[in-house]
Amino acid sequence: MEVTMDPLFLAWSYFRRRKLQQCSEICSKILQENPYDQAAWSLKTRALTEMVYVDEVDVDEEGIAEMMLDESSIAQVARPGTSLRLPGTSQGGGPTPAVRPVTQSGRPITGFVRPSTQSGRPGTMEQAIKTPRTASTARPVTSSSGRFIRLGTASMLTNPEGPFINLSRINLSKYSQKPSLSRTLFEYIFHHENDVKNALDLAAQATEHAQFKDWWWKVQLGKCYYRLGLYREAEKQFRSALNQQDVVDTYLYLTKVYQRLDQPITALNLFKQGLDHFPGEVTLLTGIARIHEEMNNISSATEYYKEVLKQDNTHVEAIACIGSNHFYTDQPEIALRFYRRLLQMGVYKCQLYNNLGLCCFYAQQYDMTLSSFERALALVASDEEQADVWYNIGQVAVGIGDLTLAYQCFKLTLAFNNDHAEAYNNLAVLELRKGHIEQSKAFLQTAASLAPHMYEPNYNLSILCEKIGDLQSSYTAAQKSEDAFPEHADTQQLLKQLRQHFAVL
Is the full-model pTM beyond 0.90? Predict the structure, then answer.
């Protein structure tokens, strides 16, 4: 005689093993036989939510809509070291653009791609639309709310007959009084259906039913307000939740609010307050390091990343950021050790081999350089990655004096990514060596228009224009170079010479 397992228990087993589709199908069969089975209903709701669940703590990108149509006003001239939005306000200790390349917002390029590191706040709408803003695509992020809407519609595929729960007909006040069902229903509405308004209504009624004593509902209210762009209301809810219960996630949500409000110092103080309650918590230490890095305070960021590694020595972001910092402070041998550690941990990516190739070259381990780049080329997943690898091979070719190979590599870079400003700049220098002045000038102008945050194209263009006698264009380009990198001594000297020329005239 065959013994069959109870269907609900089997569904729960599937859910625990992350076989969510099978779990959902079994729950659907149970609900067809008994539509009022609350356990099956709750389990199916959780399974559908888990299929599309995105952790709100880390995934956060500001789209063009959020940046350009932001009504919250901030100080136009912030005090040094108090703003994430103004590139010039670094606290010292940061590398100059001459040593470490910067993003369009003026921050040094980080060692690890995560939401917000690619972006920064562009000055004009034209700049915002023109600059690639994500790690995987050259298309700007149009709006973060749009991304959530697309997630919501994609999730409909999990149930071809239509939505599992008809939100327009559901009685939220009835469910808000049932703690066992209201939480799973809220997560379903918030993550699966992406209906923030109904989720907010349910959370508000459930909070009221719990007599404002349940910290979990206050955190959910804060998440809804944050998604709707009501940051001050979100701040109140998260603060209230922290007064009732110290939870790491609440600290992370609240610091996200302060970063959106451009209050990095408050966010840092809150992280440190969290560390008093949760000493050595890796997510809090990482958060502090990220803020220091965004404020161009690289030495402090590196200290905190080292603290992270003391607690968790397999933390990929910390290893990558410390490695890139050593590379840009002229210690490629030490950077090599960190990148090799990543390789031992099983991080097998094009970017890692790309970095290994550069570290090997600058550490004079020439036997490994080209094999690392060959591996990187074998692992490329997009044209942008391919372009970056060829650009770095071009840099190696310049280093060994093979300018013909360098020229071909930079040409290949542009074939894969036509907006690669650094390649245009280097090609211009090579063209000038061949005596092709007009071609060189055209490349430099293209590089300057593609990357207004880089000082090199403008400086090179200024030198070129001065040599051919076009002093006015030279002066304009030198001024743009000075705007991008005020401490650049050669630009200052060139401007001084040009002003003397104009004074004589």
Answer: no
